[in-house]
Design brief:
By secondary structure, the protein is mainly α. Helices cover 72% and strands 0% of the residues. It has a single domain, classed as MetI-like fold (Orthogonal Bundle). Helix 3 packs antiparallel against helix 4 and helix 3 crosses helix 6. The longest helix has 35 residues. The termini are far apart.
Length: 291
Amino acid sequence: MTSAAPERVEAAPSQADPTVAMPGLEASAPPRRRRPVGDGPLATFAKLVLPPIALFVVLVVLVELVVVAAGIPPFVLASPSAIFDQLVQYAPQVLAATLATGLNALIGLLIGAIIGVLLAIAASVARPIDGMLAPVVAAVAVVPIVALAPVFYTLFGSTSEVARILIASIAAFVPVFLNTLRGLRQVRPVHRDLMRSYAATPSQLTRLVTIPSALPHFFTGLRIASSLAVISALVAEYFGGPRQGLGSAITTAAASSAYARAWAFVIGAILLGLVFFVLTSLIERIASRHR
């Protein structure tokens, strides 16, 4: 009995082996991973901006229908169409009043933020300073604007903008100080000890550990302070001073029964607050990009 010679079996080239090419086919580069649809900057902008705009349009249309259908008088609620007409007609006046209030709020925000950061650093370094500042800050935080405005107008004169700037500074100072001080105290002792074990200098410790830990808290306080500065500067205009801000324009229009015009100036105040909030958020994003 003769044994059959074993047949020679050739292994078929594996498709998973990139070094073996199939007959008649040329080796090609692996396909590139395509970027998922909807991840571009335009799509991200649309996701963030379009929903609130759509909601705003729906609300405006509903309010217009309700005001017209129910016959609500203008002194109770002006129709959006009448407000828009007044906003277009008095656009130069609204812009001038918005710029005047915005300048006071901006100067007050800068002054309050700088003082708040400096005092927060001093309070975080020296406990006695913290003990002295704590009751002062608590007292400043509860002082109403309606009580400060007449006093400051008496001190600095009714034709000066100093009173409004000081009121905006006080309003901005409190959240910046409290949040920055909290951020400076968030640094854990183990992180400081680790940096000292690496022979880090005090300036390196501050730059690499303390400031990055405090920045998120500082920007949180700055965002809150930006809105408070606008509100405080606007409310201070109700109690005197030059007649060129949004608060003065709103009271003048309401006193003359021009309620749609008053709402047009309110729209200017809303846009001003949004501009301040967006700018502070943009500054935070730019500063956080390098962290």
